[in-house]
Design a protein that fits this description.
39-stranded mixed β-sheet, mainly beta, two-stranded antiparallel ribbon, 51 strands, 10 helices, single chain
Length: 799
């Protein structure tokens, strides 16, 4: 049975076939192409060749695609596909007459163009298929026709079609475009050439708006343009339009025998970050809503498809798009115009930042499936240029000699800021704390045996790898069993049948969760885990086998800070297991709850004396207090806002405070009976450390770290504070019994959202505060590097 994958695509996982429901074009998997000419058998298990067959009403041809398991970091190996047009062309050489190739070793332009239009639209919707594993995260294309000539130095990378829209409730699966049709007698377009200033004077259509005609005529007098053939096609840069606020983009006028338009925009990607970079990355996008789109054959405006977007809250936005055939044509010609000029003698506007050739082009207006779905599509002409959007080079995507990503050396390797991996002893050692985790061996049932060590003792660990096939990735989830590990510890004669002491367990758990996420891909175990599932542990003052946690580092984490001078928190062995006490109170919404005695130091930093009690909320807001009185967690206020000005997002603002620090953070009830906290976005951070008279004020330096984001003066929690806060939030909010009272928006803030903005009525504003079945804390440190995308979730498993 076929799945509707997006717009006009039907994917059948059983037959491994994708079909265009409008045109009838198909792509089917044939076999693993190990014996075809040009395919060299390899023992490398991270890549293999696949033979596909493309078919339509008048064409059937084979296609070679390489399956690549790409080491994406953080334990995940994403599945990427590489469409190799060079090898496919050599395969076509065997039936030269049938495929009408212009020369040996290349595909005819018409066949390549028909295949390429199909593949860049279809492959982003390929799904999980029998025998082929997960769908590709990225699809790479090498070789093809560029600027009127066949070349093997042409590299493109497309992303997978987004499955979920940015705005909740918005469905983007509606087809409003018409498929692109490529005739088999299509000839290659004439290549671009640079026409010097005033050397090219085309006749402009009289029906074009007078203002646009004047702009084009003026531009041709002051700057060179790109011209193809005898002038049947040309490009020239125009001044930025008044209604175009994107000051880093250039407005382009394009004209050929069929079309004249100023809807094209060229831009520099990350203008500030890449101002000094050579060669620079460029982007192409289209603005049909505010531009002229003129049909030269009919002498009037092009009829554009329209699509109405309906957002939650009743907001309606009417979108206008250029026809897909026009967008694809403009994308190809504009991309070729930017990439072909190696010396960058042509530029659409006068700006020192554009000096040097263009290294990479991203098509921002790349719609697939005939819908709003918009994956990325990047192009380059050199394997050595940095690929900005990938954070690496194209060589890692296309090179056929790269290794399998496994650590084979015997010399020690630094991982992160603190961990050093010693291959001979298969041991990770923490340089600051002296803690270590060693791989001991593999049990007959496939479980991995590890041993934790520190200067005070040892603790065995049992981990069972579980293979998972996520969307686009292959990996192992490591199941850390604290119940079995504690039994192994007791069997060593440590404490008989007594549960592992809290201090030891806390120390081991905090260290091991970080160490396992930093474990390298090695010959002994293969690839490291994509995540950890932890069973058992101490919870609310007692040993609880039913405690479950899931730790997930997201691939390509955004690292915004590191703690090179901050050691993690190491629990005392004699520490007493904390428990949490619920303090009942009505919910007050007149003003945010603040701690009594807070002193404001500057705009967003506060101080509370270490001797002061954690109070000020009693009788105003229910709270969780640690049994020794040294820490509290409680709702402070509603932080609801409008996403994109239309989508009401209920958020709760919470307060966390302990003996050393306090701060406010958001809690998001994104799913029923769940609460998600984010330790990246802290508000009104505070310290309880006293300043030393006559010395610089360094009170915040022990608990907070400035982010590396140049536009932000925000602080992120240092490792020790983050560990304490995360553990407290997970425990306290799972103990939270719930209250029937609702944390509504502050009245003044609610009114500021505006009537008709998508906000609910006041009684249903804000968030409910029930008993939470799952609590998640986002952001944390991996090997000393702070990542916004690390998540730890906790829940109590029930029968």
């Amino acid at each position: 049975m076929s799945d509707i994958k997006g717009g006009w695509w039907l994917f059948d996982p059983a037959t491994r076939k994708i079909t265009h429901s409008v045109t009838g074009q198909t792509l089917s998997f044939s076999n693993m192409a190990a014996a075809l000419p040009g395919i060299v058998p390899s023992a490398n298990t991270t890549r293999r060749w696949m033979l596909f067959v493309y078919e339509d009403s008048d064409l059937t041809c084979p296609l070679l695609i390489e399956w690549r398991k790409f080491n994406a970091g953080n334990g995940e190996w994403s599945v990427n596909w590489r469409v190799d047009y060079a090898r496919t062309a050599r395969l076509h050489d065997q039936e030269q007459k049938k495929y009408r190739a212009a020369k040996i070793g290349q595909m005819s332009y018409a066949i390549w163009k028909r295949l390429d239009e199909f593949l860049i639209d279809a492959l982003p919707f390929w799904g999980v298929a029998n025998g082929l594993g997960p769908a590709p995260v990225f699809i790479a294309f090498n070789a093809g026709w560029m600027n009127g000539a066949w070349t093997e130095a042409f590299y493109r990378v497309s992303g997978k079609a987004p499955e979920y829209p940015f705005n909740r409730g918005f469905v983007n699966n509606v087809v409003f475009q018409t498929p692109v049709s490529i005739p088999l007698d299509l000839t290659p377009p004439a290549p671009w050439r640079i026409a010097p200033t005033e050397s090219f004077t085309p006749v402009l259509d009289a029906n074009l708006p007078a203002a646009l005609r004047e702009e084009v005529a003026s531009a041709l007098q002051v700057r060179p343009c790109l011209v193809a053939g005898d002038g049947e096609r040309y490009l020239v840069g125009l001044p930025i339009s008044v209604d175009d606020v994107r000051t880093s983009s250039a407005r382009i006028f394009y004209c050929d025998s069929d079309l004249a338009t100023d809807m094209v925009r060229f831009g520099l990607h990350g203008q500030q970050e890449n101002a000094a970079r050579s060669p620079p990355p460029w982007s192409i996008e289209f603005a049909p809503k505010t531009s002229v789109l003129f049909d030269r054959r009919l002498g009037g405006a092009v009829s554009c498809p329209k699509y109405r977007k309906e957002y939650p809250g009743g907001f309606v936005f009417d979108a206008i798009y250029a026809p897909l055939s026009i967008e694809r044509k403009l994308a190809d010609f504009c991309r070729d115009g930017l990439l072909f000029d190696r010396q960058k003698e042509w530029t659409p506007f006068d700006d020192a930042m554009t000096a040097g050739r263009c290294s990479e082009v991203r098509l921002k207006s790349h719609y697939v499936g005939g819908t709003e779905s918009q994956p990325t599509l990047d192009a380059a002409i050199s394997l050595d240029d940095p690929l900005v959007w990938w954070g690496g080079t194209l060589r890692s995507v296309f090179d056929e000699t790269s290794d399998d990503g496994i650590l084979h050396g015997r010399a020690p390797v630094m991982i992160g800021a603190f961990w050093e991996y010693d291959p001979p002893s298969t041991t990770l050692r923490h340089r600051l704390t002296g803690q270590s985790v060693s791989l001991v061996g593999r049990d007959p049932d496939g479980a991995l045996s590890f041993l934790y060590r520190d200067p005070d003792g040892e603790y065995p660990l049992r981990i069972l790898p579980q293979r998972i096939l996520d969307t686009g990735s292959i990996g192992f989830l490591w199941m850390l069993d604290h119940v079995r590990s504690a039994a192994l510890w007791r069997a060593r004669g440590e404490m008989g049948d007594v549960a592992v002491p809290y201090g030891l367990w806390r120390r081991v758990d905090d260290c091991v969760l970080d160490a396992l996420l930093c474990w390298p891909d090695t010959e002994e175990i293969g690839q490291k885990p994509v995540g950890l599932k932890v069973s058992g542990g101490w919870f609310n003052g007692a040993w609880l086998p039913a405690l479950r946690r899931y730790v997930k580092p997201v691939r390509r984490d955004l690292v915004i800070g590191k703690s090179a001078a901050h050691a993690p928190f190491v629990e005392r062995l004699d520490a007493v297991a904390p428990s949490w006490i619920y303090i009942d109170a009505p919910v007050t919404v007149d003003a945010p709850i603040r701690l009594s005695g807070e002193v404001k130091l500057d705009r967003s930093r506060f101080y509370l004396p270490e001797s002061a009690e954690l109070s000020g909320f009693e009788g105003k807001m229910p709270a969780m207090r640690r049994n020794d009185g040294g820490a509290v967690v409680l709702p402070s206020a509603s932080g609801s806002f409008l996403l994109c000005g239309v989508d009401y997002r209920p958020i709760a603002r919470f307060l966390y405070a302990d003996e050393n620090a306090f701060f406010y953070l958001d809690g998001d009830p994104f799913f029923r009976n769940t609460m998600e906290f984010d330790l990246h976005m802290l508000f009104n951070v505070g310290t309880r450390r006293a300043s030393v008279s006559g010395q610089p004020d360094t009170r915040f330096a022990e608990d907070y770290i400035p982010t590396s984001l140049s536009h932000s003066d925000a602080l992120i929690p240092a490792p020790a504070l983050l560990q304490r806060a995360r553990n407290a939030l997970l425990d306290a909010m799972l103990v939270w019994p719930g209250t029937s009272a609702r944390l509504r928006d502050e009245p003044g803030k609610y009114e500021s959202l505006g009537a008709g903005s998508g906000r609910p009525d006041y009684e249903h504003s804000g968030v409910s505060l029930p008993k939470f079945g799952k609590v998640t804390v986002k952001s944390g440190y991996i090997g000393g590097y702070f990542s916004q995308n690390l998540t730890v979730s906790a829940w109590i498993e029930t029968d």
